[in-house]
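Section 5.1 Outputs to date
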Amino acid sequence: DLIASARMSPRVETYTLLGDMLRWRGEWRRARTAYRQALALSPNDATVLASLATLDRLERLAMAGRADGVLPGWLASFRHGEDNTGYLFMAAGISRGFAVGERTVLSVGAEQRRVSQRLPGGGEHYLFGYALEGGVDQMFWRARLSARAGVARHALVASMPYGSAELSLPLGRANVSLEVSDGPAYTSLMTTRALAAQRGETFTGGAPLRGREATLAASAPVGRAEVYLSAAAMQLSDGNARRSVQASLRVPIAPHVSALYSGGTLGFSERSDSYWTPSRYVSHAVGVEVAVRKPTGFSGAARVLPGYGRSQESIATSGSTPIRLEPRNVPQLSASYEVGWQARRWRVLVDGSYGRGREGGYQSLTSSARVQLDW
């Protein structure tokens, strides 16, 4: 009846109610189409924008999305990252979210961490540590503010306070977010040298490298496609600076199948022997995603993107000025997956990724698991 009514006399209220009914039935792709048709008639309608925000939240919850805010209840998590330079990071934690009214969630959590450097001969040196964290998620009329603060501690290393804040809100048909953070840089740079100095094959402690970063991101539908753009600037405590720009495009080509493009550039202002510091690295990749997302039961997604990167790097010399190498095209491959399950009070997500690029056949692996209980 609603579809027939919309065809005879298109109205914002009709398309909005149609989107709501499709959303309640779990037909999220069709619901999004209905909401976009409503926005075409009234681009800044608050009711439609609120319904789209609800749909976005449901889709993230179905996959237990890490980008979403903390939810009321218990959360057990595990995360891991490693590469073929010998770096290995593992962490396991638990947190509790407390609802305060309808728009506020407070959270506290603790995490056990292990950072290690594996040696070519088969040995391994590691640093155990932990992190304690508190946070708040506050929903406004059309926006969400999320803030975190905590302290991380590792053997041989001084306590490392950290914090972050993110504001996200819809602007027309787009969703825009701004995030600022300050804290240890070893997880993003993926090197133990950013955490503790090494003498030979032994950790000797020292001041950990810190990074202060600001990231502006936006996503929006363009026709049938979805576009994502982000720009980030990081200032490191050793005086170095990193700038990056990323873009991605998702275009549905069949039920549950989408074509993907991902590209970007990053660069450092100075060269360092402690971590990878290209003066410029440009990447482009094209691939495919297969995804099945449901409001309850199992959901999943997998994607593969082959491509290439163009790297501009330099090497140290006996003089004061490094020698800049000739730019080189480097084969690149990224692959990732998510598998989730959601029941009335339970949400489970397992995901992972593989990446290959840079110079010298660099490879990395990441994975995570989350179990959420609304209780």
